[in-house]
């Protein structure tokens, strides 16, 4: 059922449009080879990916800073597979990872198609908790930056989704009312609840999840936004 009176759409970036896990894996493969680290990449990622998600949760909750996130997720993953890496090398890998991450730019299926469909009818925006220096590169290098009129990241606001301040800041920059806006993202807590808590409509993107409230709109492919917009 089409949602009426929407003029502005706010997208999350990582795990919603930009295929973070795929691009991250390619980045690790590159930097491990550059630094002569012989490691089973698949095994490393099986530990790193859930560890990384937990660190991002701590970061959203203001319990750790950016530096702790960048070092801790790598250190914990290496520890989990009993692979010894010196602290100075972990710091270098952390820097190399950020440097090369946006050089890989796989997008989720139908990203271009849905942005082309939505762009003539709506004003499109980004709200992201990602680091500003990386997110700009992701948007530019994946050739989707021109679709978005505004990009709000947590570092420019000083808080992270689901904090109401970042949503209100994005609305102010976009010069739009909350009841004319909708948020689309993969994180139920940060994107969906964050938006709903300020009165903004929201759509959850990801595998259909029975744990969500029955009233929450869900899609498992971006092209299915046509059902609502």
UniProtKB/TrEMBL annotation:
InterPro entries in UniProt: HAD-like_sf (IPR036412), HAD-SF_hydro_IA (IPR006439), HAD-SF_hydro_IA_YjjG/PynA (IPR011951), HAD_2 (IPR041492), HAD_sf (IPR023214), PGP-like_dom2 (IPR023198), Pyrimidine_5'-ntase_YjjG (IPR052550)
Coiled coil: none
SUPFAM superfamilies associated with the record: HAD-like (SSF56784)
Identification of the protein by name: YjjG family noncanonical pyrimidine nucleotidase
Organism: Jejuia spongiicola
Phylogenetic placement of the source organism: Bacteria, Pseudomonadati, Bacteroidota, Flavobacteriia, Flavobacteriales
């Amino acid at each position: 059922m089409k949602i009426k009176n929407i003029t502005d759409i706010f997208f999350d970036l990582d795990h919603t449009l930009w295929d973070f896990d795929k691009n991250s894996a390619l980045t690790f493969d590159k930097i491990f080879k550059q630094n002569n680290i012989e490691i089973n990449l698949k095994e490393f990622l099986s530990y790193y990916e859930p560890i990384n998600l937990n660190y991002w949760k701590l970061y959203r909750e203001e319990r750790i800073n950016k530096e702790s996130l960048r070092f801790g997720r790598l250190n914990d993953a290496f520890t989990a597979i009993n692979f010894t890496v010196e602290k100075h090398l972990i710091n270098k890998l952390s820097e190399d990872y950020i440097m090369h991450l946006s050089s890989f730019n796989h997008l989720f299926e139908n990203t271009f198609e849905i942005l082309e469909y939505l762009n003539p009818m709506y004003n499109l925006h980004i709200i992201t908790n990602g680091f500003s220096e990386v997110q700009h590169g992701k948007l530019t290098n994946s050739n989707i930056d021109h679709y978005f009129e505004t990009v709000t990241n947590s570092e420019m606001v000083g808080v992270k989704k689901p904090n109401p301040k970042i949503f209100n800041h994005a609305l102010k920059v976009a010069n739009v009312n909350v009841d004319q806006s909708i948020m689309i993202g993969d994180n139920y807590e940060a994107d969906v609840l964050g938006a709903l808590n300020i009165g903004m409509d929201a759509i959850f993107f990801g595998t259909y999840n029975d744990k969500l409230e029955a009233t929450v709109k869900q899609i498992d492919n971006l092209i299915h936004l046509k059902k609502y917009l």
